[in-house]
Write a structure and sequence with these properties.
Layout: H1 18-26, H2 31-51, H3 56-84, H4 90-127
Helix pairs in contact: 1-3, 2-3, 3-4
Length: 128
C-alpha cells in the first residue's frame, strides 16, 4: 500500500488556485454550516427542478451553485485532514481528491449556467 507523504502546495503563495481562494474565504464557516449549505443547496435545486416546469433550470442552478461550492469547501477540508494524517492510505486520499474534482466541476458549471441564464436573455434584448 502506497502512502501519501505531503500535500502538494503551490511553489509561490501568490499562485494560489481558485480552490485555495475559496477555502481561505470559507475558513470562518464551521463544517456544520457548510454541511447545511450543501444539503439545502442541492435539495433546493432538486425541489425546484421537480416542482417547476420549463423555468426549473433557471431557478435550480442558483441553489445548486451554493450547495456545490459548500461541498467543494468541505471536500477540500477533508483532503487537508487526510494529508495531515501521517501515513494516510493512498486510496482514501484518491477518493477524496475525486470528490473534490467532481464538486469543483459541478460548482463551476452551475455558476456558469446561473450567470448564463441570467445574462443571455438580457444580451438578446440588447442585440435585437
Amino acid at each position: 500500500m502506497t502512502m501519501i507523504d505531503a500535500p502538494p502546495h503551490p511553489a509561490d503563495p501568490r499562485e494560489e488556485s481558485l480552490a485555495d481562494l475559496l477555502l481561505n474565504a470559507a475558513r470562518p464557516a464551521s463544517d456544520r454550516q457548510l454541511t447545511v449549505a450543501a444539503i439545502v443547496g442541492v435539495a433546493g435545486a432538486i425541489i425546484f427542478w421537480l416542482s417547476l416546469g420549463g423555468w426549473s433550470l433557471s431557478v435550480a442552478t442558483a441553489p445548486l451553485t451554493i450547495g456545490a461550492f459548500a461541498a467543494w469547501v468541505l471536500a477540500g477540508r477533508e483532503l487537508d485532514r487526510a494529508y495531515a494524517e501521517p501515513g494516510a492510505p493512498r486510496w482514501s486520499v484518491l477518493v477524496i481528491r475525486a470528490f473534490v474534482a467532481v464538486t469543483a466541476v459541478t460548482a463551476v458549471l452551475a455558476t456558469l449556467a446561473t450567470f448564463g441564464l441570467i445574462f443571455l436573455p438580457l444580451l438578446g434584448r440588447i442585440i435585437s
